[in-house]
Write a structure and sequence with these properties.
The protein folds into five domains: about 120 residues, no CATH class; about 90 residues; about 90 residues; about 425 residues, Galactose oxidase/kelch, beta-propeller (Methylamine Dehydrogenase, Chain H); about 100 residues, Immunoglobulin-like (Sandwich), CATH 2.60.40. About 10% of the residues lie in helices and about 35% in strands. The chain is built from ten helices and 67 strands. A six-stranded antiparallel beta sheet has the order 9-11-10-15-8-12, covered by helices on one side. Strands 27-26-25-24-60-61 form a six-stranded antiparallel beta sheet, with no helix packed on it. Strands 57, 59, 62, 65, 66 and 67 form a six-stranded mixed beta sheet that branches. The longest helix has 15 residues. The chain starts with a helix and ends in a 9-residue tail after the last helix.
Length: about 950
């Protein structure tokens, strides 16, 4: 065997990869070029005190300069050395034509790192100036600065050189972000790591510990400034520096940018760019004076709403995102040509900036108003009457108390008085699904394991079925449970469900216990029905589904929509299918493009667009946001603050031609995880809530804010008009901006009034006040039509059957606007999933005098499943206040007593039996 091949095959995988990369580099570096000085060329212009050192070897694995690094197709020695110098490093190395590495010492000496080869081995011209040399394959052209005093920390740009000494918390930490311990710690290293990972505070403690954060917690005595002399312990890596002491932190902070962005502009996200540009409006290159601010000014002068900088010197403008594949901020850290203390994107990496929409004004302005305190976190909600809404949370220390003085986790919310009435729930209803039955009863399915908290035990809710018959706001209706007779056939945590054309409900997927994501050992890859059915050979029991095996690990709380074909659309992970539940046939649809993942913990907004006579009630699905992160990543590998969500929207018509064409892609102006998609009566969609970075869940990711796996809330809603051409459908113009972060466990729902209720957010294990807190504040988003002269109507019957005609007496303010009746199911909302949300335009005829509207009920049950609905009369874009009616006969869904008996005989009560108690000692981090 060839000796080289034998050597490579004997190496461990990571060394083999490095050896191969070395070999590949050497094949392309046989360029007869020597060091600049040897050729007699003029040396690069270097910062004061910097000189050329030598050609230096990389170690056999890793890097010899381990500080800041970047790549640039415009790389020069000047650019590399300046970038390292401004960040306080004393060594700068240019490698392989377009790479720059910074450090203050050489690492990897045991395997050759920092050793000096012949100068001729550094022979690659710099990508940005062929007269300069930028190393070669695994060879660095190294420059050094010997002027930095050893005891004075060299800090990255923007960091104050003055430190202070603060106290550490007696329990917990004053700095709650990233942390590490190093027996060679220096202040320079600690601050640099915090800067590289996006934090604004860096603290060194007890000689060898480094902590990063964006906030300073004052809990438990932390964060109090004390005398500088109390931070008196030498740094482990530099005895001339002080790195805190026991319970004392040497604290550095990042100062505000000295070159602020123009008013109203903010950093949006870093994304991969391609030859078909993310922003395809005006563009220019400036190799000497580019900064984010100068680019933004150029774009703003041309009336663009988006600006982006790339590769240090390039500026791009646009009004819409043409494509986007978000990546980490660290990929957008090439120094700007006009100010190397600032960053201007990267090589094929665009940092996008966005202009805020400004304060709403004029007749088309939307408003945001406060709506009281919910008392329980609004984690699951469903509008039940014109004045009430059901709210379900989990067993936690909520301020709303039941009659027994213990915290409630369910309530009826009064939409008029903005007050909550506590409910009495037996089994743990957290993490459940819900739907109205054909008789108007709301059914709530599945839930959370057995929980003991605040001196109260709550029975396992994973097999639970809870029934609620709505009553007037003045009533005392409550949750009904009878687990010995009414239950699911299997445990379901994070299931989804849908009302079917016979008025019953199908419940799909979920896990058999709680966890951040699903796995084969806890997966529940099946579906079942309530009431139980004897179908497809499964008499009242769950029916296996291959789809829920193939979509592991991210397949809980799937998006499910009942379609006019009687089939179901189901989406999980980055896959989708049509489920013919009557025959147990799964038909796969095209996967979501670009690896877009659309359900928990990478939740996207999902909407079934309006069904209308004009589109022959042909369904069309819209899915916006989510994440492009790999589903193989563990929670602790995901960065809550810097892993961007998806900005992608995928839209597909569910007929033969639409499926053949596949998902059509467009982009929101900003990425969103955990967004809500709320249908309006006029056919538009409001996208709101969520964050720009991280994932759903809590206590899993790195760099969390408190326990939240997500950060950077999106405070301004988006309005999407599906009737407009692609590229023109999104706007934030005249939208109000909230100051309340709505992250994990938040909700939004359309109300009969036409307003949107916004509530919840609790990325914590219990009630919490630190960021991001348990959120009890309620808001109402009021579309501009709320302030216009609106249509009104009378004469709505309480019940309308399929194809039946009824007449409404109407008052239409506009003498010319088109008038129609729209039937809506407002749905059951939780975890970004809007179960049964649907809008169906009914066949309507307006009389010549515009005073009578003749309306025909929905054509059949598959178009709108029997059950409650809301009628809005819409004049142009302006809807009336809705009134409730029953579609169908109001009868209960079909019940198969034998199937129910078989289910009961083959399952145990969810609140009895020793197998339920096993959950008692577990702590679930969701």
């Amino acid at each position: 065997m060839n000796m080289v091949i034998h050597l490579l095959l004997s190496l461990p995988l990571f060394q083999l990869s490095h050896a191969l990369s070395v070999r590949q580099h050497s094949l392309v570096t046989s360029i007869p070029t020597n060091n600049n000085n040897l050729l007699g060329r003029a040396p690069p212009v270097l910062p004061s005190g910097w000189v050329y050192k030598s050609c230096v070897r990389e170690p056999s694995s890793g890097r010899t300069l381990t500080g800041y690094s970047f790549t640039s197709s415009s790389m020069t020695v000047d650019l590399c050395v300046s970038a390292c110098a401004t960040r306080g490093y004393s060594l700068a190395g240019a490698e392989y034509a377009n790479e720059c590495y910074c450090g203050s010492s050489f690492a990897g000496a045991a395997t050759g790192g920092g050793s000096v080869p012949p100068e001729s081995e550094c022979n690659m011209p710099c990508a940005g100036d062929s007269s300069q040399t930028c190393g070669a394959g695994n060879r660095l052209s190294v420059y050094a600065n010997g002027q930095i005093p050893s005891g004075t920390p060299a800090l990255p740009p923007g960091w104050s050189s003055t430190s202070k000494c603060i106290t550490e918390a007696s329990s917990g930490r004053a700095l709650t972000g990233n942390s590490f311990t190093s027996q060679s710690l220096t202040l320079d290293q600690c601050v640099d790591v915090c800067d590289q990972t996006g934090f604004r505070y860096a603290g060194a403690e007890y000689g060898a510990e480094c902590y990063c954060s964006n906030t300073i917690s004052t809990a438990n005595g932390g964060g109090v400034e004390v005398a500088a002399s109390e931070c008196n312990m030498n740094c482990a890596g530099n005895s001339q520096q002080k790195c805190g002491a026991g319970f004392r932190i040497t604290l550095f902070s990042k100062t505000p940018n000295s070159n602020p962005l123009p008013t109203g502009w903010t950093e949006n996200f870093c994304t991969v760019d391609q030859s078909a540009r993310v922003l395809d409006g005006y563009s220019y290159t400036d190799g000497s004076s580019m900064t984010p601010a100068t680019c933004i000014v150029a774009c703003a002068q041309r009336n663009f709403l988006l600006a982006g900088v790339e590769n240090g010197s390039e500026c791009y403008c646009g009004n819409t995102i043409k494509q986007a594949y978000p990546t980490k901020d660290a990929d957008c850290r090439v120094p700007c040509s006009g100010d190397d203390t600032q960053f201007c994107g990267g090589g094929w990496r665009l940092m996008v900036y966005i202009k805020a929409p400004g304060a709403p004004s004029g007749p088309n302005a939307w408003t945001l108003t406060s709506g009281g305190n919910s008392g329980v976190v609004m984690t699951h909600v469903a509008v039940t009457t014109s004045d009430t809404m059901l709210v379900i949370d989990r067993k936690e220390n909520n301020p709303l108390l039941k009659a027994d003085g213990k915290p409630a986790w369910g309530a009826v919310w009064n939409l008029q008085s903005n007050t909550a009435r506590p409910l009495n729930i037996v089994t743990h209803s957290f993490c459940s699904s819900g739907n109205f039955l054909s008789n108007g009863t709301l059914a709530n399915f599945g839930g959370h394991p057995y929980t003991e908290r605040n001196g109260e035990a709550v029975s396992d809710g994973q097999q639970g079925i809870r029934l609620f018959n709505p009553c007037a706001a003045s009533g005392n209706c409550d949750i009904y449970e009878n687990p010995t007779r009414i239950r699911l056939s299997s445990d379901r945590w994070y299931p989804s469900s849908a009302r079917l054309h016979d008025g019953s409900v199908i419940i799909l997927g979920g896990q058999i216990t709680a966890g951040w994501t699903n796995s084969e050992s806890v997966n529940n890859p099946s579906y079942e029905f309530f009431p139980a059915k004897n179908i497809n050979g499964y008499n009242g029991l769950q029916i296996p589904s291959q789809f829920f095996k193939d979509t592991l690990p991210h397949n809980t709380f799937p998006h499910v929509f009942a379609l006019p074909s009687k089939k179901l659309f189901v989406a999980a992970n980055n896959q989708a299918m049509l489920l013919d539940w009557e025959n147990n046939i799964e038909t796969r649809l095209p996967n979501f493009p670009n690896g877009q993942r659309v359900v928990y913990p990478m939740n996207a907004a999902g909407v079934l667009l309006p069904l209308t006579p004009a589109n022959n009630y042909t369904p069309e699905i819209l899915i916006c946001g989510g994440s492009h992160l790999s589903d193989t990543l563990k929670g602790e590998e995901i960065d809550a603050q810097h892993d961007y969500a998806s900005a992608q929207c995928s839209r597909m018509v569910l007929d033969a031609a639409g499926i053949a064409a596949g998902w059509q892609i467009e982009y929101m102006p900003e990425p969103r995880i955990m967004a809500e998609g709320v249908l309006l009566p006029n056919g538009k969609v409001v996208i709101l809530n969520g964050g720009k970075t991280g994932t759903a869940g809590y206590a899993n990711s790195k760099y969390r804010i408190g326990d939240s796996n997500a950060d950077n809330p999106t405070f301004t809603p988006l309005l999407y008009d599906p009737s407009l051409p692609a590229g023109q459908r999104f706007t934030q113009f005249n939208m109000p901006t909230s100051n309340i972060g709505r992250l994990y466990h938040s909700v939004a729902t359309l109300l009969p009034s036409g307003a949107i209720l916004i509530g919840g957010s609790n990325p914590n294990d219990d009630m919490e006040t630190r960021p991001w807190p348990s959120e009890y504040r309620v808001e109402y988003l009021n579309p501009s039509y709320m302030f216009a002269e609106r249509p009104t109507y009378t004469g709505l019957p309480t019940m309308v059957n399929y194809g039946a005609t009824f007449t409404l007496s109407v008052s239409i303010p506009s003498p010319t606007a088109t008038v129609k009746a729209v039937l809506m199911d407002l749905g059951f909302i939780t975890h970004s999933v809007h179960m049964d949300q649907k809008a169906v335009e009914l066949v309507s005829t307006l009389s010549a005098d515009r005073k009578t509207l003749t309306v025909v009920g929905p054509p059949n049950a598959p178009v709108y499943s029997p059950g409650p609905g809301w009628i809005y009369v819409v004049s142009g874009d302006i809807p009336s206040v809705a009134q409730k009616l029953m579609i169908g006969t109001g009868a209960s869904p079909p019940k198969d007593d034998a199937a129910t008996a078989n289910m009961l005989a083959n399952t145990a009560s969810p609140i009895s039996g020793p197998h339920r108690k096993r959950h008692a000692r577990r702590r679930y981090l969701l």
